[in-house]
Design a protein that fits this description.
Blueprint: E1 8-12, H1 19-30, E2 33-36, H2 37-50, H3 59-67, E3 71-73, E4 87-89, E5 92-93, H4 101-111, H5 114-125, E6 133-137, H6 140-144, E7 150-155, H7 158-171, H8 178-194, E8 207-210, H9 216-230
Parallel strand pairs: 1-6, 1-7, 2-6, 7-8
Antiparallel strand pairs: 3-4, 4-5
Helix pairs in contact: 1-9, 2-4, 3-5, 7-8
């Protein structure tokens, strides 16, 4: 249950808008738990693949796996250092493993299972710990945490988002073609905004920030001002 002592900040927006980096840094700065909802499906797909489960035949088993998935963001439950965009499956860092084409394909397969979506809805809500939560995704403010006191919808032009994603992948040693990334983002935007279940859109009470011409520091500063107004200083 939400409370003033356990506030939730939701950051929704299209892929490549910078919401993952911003959410990670906010969570670290505030001492809140971090939820990267998109990575949940990727990690679940990876875990199902490793367990030898098949999306067409083992839907109940995959839903059960989703309910108890030992996933953490920013750092593991061990004393590992915090790293932006890091994802942990138990004590194993899987940040790169979940970004492969195979992991992406499996994420799409498991996300299409209704029981998995229902299981992960509660799993996402369970991330709210004793301090507070920064939740990054596409339907955090509209579906998962509709009562959050601060909702941000972070967006940017599709061209800027493609360039950012290209730089991120190259920096991680992953081959990427800018034109292909641009086309992929355009197609993904269409799917996300037109799907019937929890489509990508800003919540009615969300504050939209266009980060096309903004640095990470500028976006952080603007959101921190909103935190002081909506939640209070932390």
């Amino acid at each position: 249950m939400l409370s003033a002592a356990r506030p939730v900040i939701t950051i929704d927006g299209p892929s490549g808008s910078g919401k993952g980096t911003i959410a990670s840094r906010l969570a670290q700065r505030l001492g809140f738990t971090l939820l990267d909802s998109g990575a949940l499906y990727r990690v679940l797909g990876l875990a199902a693949l490793r367990a030898g489960l098949k999306p067409e035949e083992d839907q109940e088993a995959i839903a059960a796996l989703a309910a108890d998935l030992p996933i953490h963001f920013g750092r593991a439950v061990t004393d590992a250092p915090w790293k932006d965009d890091s994802v942990w499956l138990g004590a194993e860092e899987v940040s790169l493993a979940i970004r492969t084409d195979e992991a992406s394909a499996w994420a799409s397969l498991v996300a299409a299972i209704p029981a998995v979506r229902a299981s992960l809805l509660q799993r996402q809500r369970d991330f709210l710990g004793d301090a507070g939560l920064v939740a990054d995704g596409r339907d955090m403010g509209t579906t998962v945490f509709p009562e959050a006191p601060l909702k941000v919808f972070l967006t940017a032009s599709v061209e800027a988002r493609a360039e950012r994603r290209h730089k991120q992948l190259i920096a991680k040693g992953i081959d990427a073609i800018l034109s292909a990334l641009l086309r992929e983002l355009q197609e993904r935007d269409a799917r996300d905004t037109q799907r019937s279940a929890s489509p990508l859109r800003a919540a009615e009470d969300a504050i939209t920030i266009d980060s096309t011409d903004m640095s990470i520091e500028q976006v952080m500063a603007q959101i921190e001002e909103l935190i002081a107004i909506k939640i209070g200083k932390h």
